[in-house]
Amino acid sequence: MSYQLLKGKRGIIFGALDENSIAWKTAERVYEEGGSFVLTNAPIALRMGTINTLAEKTKSTVIPADATSMEDLENLVKQAQEVLGGKLDFVLHSIGMSLNVRKGCHYTEENYEFTAKGWDISALSFHKVLQVLYKNDAMNEWGSVVALTYMAAQRTFPDYNDMADNKAYLESIARSFGYFFGKNKKVRVNTISQSPTPTTAGKGVKGFDGFITYAEKMSPLGNATALECANYTVAMFSDLTRKVTMQNLFHDGGFSNTGVSQEVISAFTKE
Asked: In terms of pTM, does the model score above 0.85?
């Protein structure tokens, strides 16, 4: 169902890889709600995914950009405004990658070159995106920037590895940059802390299948799906949430505030 919440609004969506991606689902929902946008991802990700299919479906343009490169981001923001015909109203940062996870390096035995690379891609890239938008005055007043995060920034999930540190840094950027973007430009900056979701990246975390089942049993409303996250993101892009900024917003079916559920108690109770 469409409410045309984003009619006439323009933006950039980072990170759509395939139809399992939250960014992919968000692009589809933004399009249904009347928004227009540019799709972007790193050149290597564009070769791996099927983003052109999404671009055709949503009548959008794909502009390759490495989110760790200031030059690429400058070009992206400039071209996006040219393609879309004006300043931007929304931006989604859906980027995350840990080489330590990919290479099987335990958290206690990190390869620090991998750590630095993953931090740059997963966290510092958010600051770079915000800085380019801010310095180029590329956002309309009451615009909205959202980055996707995970609760491992607050609680320990052993196999999430250094991505937990990256997400904590990402959330701090939203608060710190959000102050200046709000004060000086009337632009909102928030993070959405999503349930474990079976995306390509999510399924790469060790023990993911077991954990997503556990989270489902712990959450009063069950895990939030990628599509449901897309709907929440649309709400954050809309004018209905103009005064929400510098927040880390949990979208996890209540998992983050549940100490233990009856289902979990039952699983560990001897008959």
From this structure: yes
